[in-house]
C-alpha cells in the first residue's frame, strides 16, 4: 500500500499510550454517534407529529451520521489505533476513505438543504404550504447522495487519490502530492464541498434573520396558533444553525491542515497536527443527536 514519502520522516511510532487514548476516544464517539442516531431515526420515523416532508432531511442526516459512526469510527479506525497500524490493507483504505467521504459530504449537504428548507418555511410560508411534499424531499435526498458520491468517485478514476495519513490510523484524500492533477482535485473539492455549502447556509441564515425581524413586527396581527407555529419554526431553525456551527467547528481544523498541504506548507503537516483534527472531525456524527435532545422542541417532547 502506497504511503506518501512525506510521512517517512515521522517513522517513529506514536507513543503506545497516545494510540490507546485515541482508540478509546474514537470508540466512545462511535458508540455515542451510533446509539444517538439510532434513537433519532426511531423517534423521527415513529412519532406522528415528526413525520413531515421536511423531517425526511433530518432522517437522512441521521442515516449518514449513523453510517459514519458505526463503520468509520468503530471498528475500522478504533481497531487500527489499538493495533498501532492500519490493519485493513489497500482495499480497506480505499473503502474507508470512500465511506467517510460520502457520509461526511452527505452530512454537510443535507445540513445545507435543511437550512434552505428552514429559510423557505420562515420567509415564504405560503409557498412552502403548497410546495412541501414527500416527493420533493425525496428528490432533494437523492440529489444530495448523488452529488456526494460524484465527488468521492474521482480518486478511483485518476483525479486525486486515497491513501493513509498521519500515523496511519485513517485514510483520506491525498493532499500532499504537488501535481496539477492532485492540486486541482483538492481545490475543486474544498470549493464545492465545503466553501459553497457553508456559504449557502450563511446566506440562508441572513435571510432567516431578516424574515424573523419582519415576522416580529407582524406577530401581533397573527392568530395565536399561527404565532406559535412561527415561533416553533424559528426554534427549529436555531437548532439547525447549531448543527451547522458544530459541523464547521469539527471539520474546519482538518480542512485547514489539508489546505496547508495543498498549498505546499507540508512542514506544518505532522502526524500530530493531522491526527488531532481527524479526531475532532470524527466527532461530527455524534453531535447532532445531542443537539436535538437539548434543543429541538418536538424531539424533546417525543423523547
Automatic annotation (TrEMBL):
Give the Gene3D superfamilies listed for this entry.
Answer: Rhodopsin 7-helix transmembrane proteins
Provide the topology term for how it sits in the membrane: Multi-pass membrane protein
- In which organism is this protein found? Helobdella robusta
Matching entries from SUPFAM superfamilies are given as: Family A G protein-coupled receptor-like
Q: Name one GO biological process term.
A: G protein-coupled receptor signaling pathway
Q: Which InterPro entries match?
A: GPCR_opsins, GPCR_Rhodpsn, GPCR_Rhodpsn_7TM
Q: Which GO terms describe its cellular component?
A: plasma membrane
Describe the family membership recorded for this protein in Swiss-Prot or TrEMBL: Belongs to the G-protein coupled receptor 1 family.
Membrane-traversing stretches: 20-45, 57-79, 85-116, 137-157, 194-213, 234-254
User: Could you tell me where this protein is found in the cell?
Assistant: Membrane
Instruction: Give the UniProt keywords, A-Z.
Output: Chromophore, Disulfide bond, G-protein coupled receptor, Lipoprotein, Membrane, Palmitate, Photoreceptor protein, Receptor, Retinal protein, Sensory transduction, Transducer, Transmembrane, Transmembrane helix
The superkingdom of the source organism is Eukaryota
Protein name (database record): G-protein coupled receptors family 1 profile domain-containing protein
**Molecular function via GO:** G protein-coupled photoreceptor activity
Q: Which residues form the G-protein coupled receptors family 1 profile domain?
A: 36-292
Amino acid at each position: 500500500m502506497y504511503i506518501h514519502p512525506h510521512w517517512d520522516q515521522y517513522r517513529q511510532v506514536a507513543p503506545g499510550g497516545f494510540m490507546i487514548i485515541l482508540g478509546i476516544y474514537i470508540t466512545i464517539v462511535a458508540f455515542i454517534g451510533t446509539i444517538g442516531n439510532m434513537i433519532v431515526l426511531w423517534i423521527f420515523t415513529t412519532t406522528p407529529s415528526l413525520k413531515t416532508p421536511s423531517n425526511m432531511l433530518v432522517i437522512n442526516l441521521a442515516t449518514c451520521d449513523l453510517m459514519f459512526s458505526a463503520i468509520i469510527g468503530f471498528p475500522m479506525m478504533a481497531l487500527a489505533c489499538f493495533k498501532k497500524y492500519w490493519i485493513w490493507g489497500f482495499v480497506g483504505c480505499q473503502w474507508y476513505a470512500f465511506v467517510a467521504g460520502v457520509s461526511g459530504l452527505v452530512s454537510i449537504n443535507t445540513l445545507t438543504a435543511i437550512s434552505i428548507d428552514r429559510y423557505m418555511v420562515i420567509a415564504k410560508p405560503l409557498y412552502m404550504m403548497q410546495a412541501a411534499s414527500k416527493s420533493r424531499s425525496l428528490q432533494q435526498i437523492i440529489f444530495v447522495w448523488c452529488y456526494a458520491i460524484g465527488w468521492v468517485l474521482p480518486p478511483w478514476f485518476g483525479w486525486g487519490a486515497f491513501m493513509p495519513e498521519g500515523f496511519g490510523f485513517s485514510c483520506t484524500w491525498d493532499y500532499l502530492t504537488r501535481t496539477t492533477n492532485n492540486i486541482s482535485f483538492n481545490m475543486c473539492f474544498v470549493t464545492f464541498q465545503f466553501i459553497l455549502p457553508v456559504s449557502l447556509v450563511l446566506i440562508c441564515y441572513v435571510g432567516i434573520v431578516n424574515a424573523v425581524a419582519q415576522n416580529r413586527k407582524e406577530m401581533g396581527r397573527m392568530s395565536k396558533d399561527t404565532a406559535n407555529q412561527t415561533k416553533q419554526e424559528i426554534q427549529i431553525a436555531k437548532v439547525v444553525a447549531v448543527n451547522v456551527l458544530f459541523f464547521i467547528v469539527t471539520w474546519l481544523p482538518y480542512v485547514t491542515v489539508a489546505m496547508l498541504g495543498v498549498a505546499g506548507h507540508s512542514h506544518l503537516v505532522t502526524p500530530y497536527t493531522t491526527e488531532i483534527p481527524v479526531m475532532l472531525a470524527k466527532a461530527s456524527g455524534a453531535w447532532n443527536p445531542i443537539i436535538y435532545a437539548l434543543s429541538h422542541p418536538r424531539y424533546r417532547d417525543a423523547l
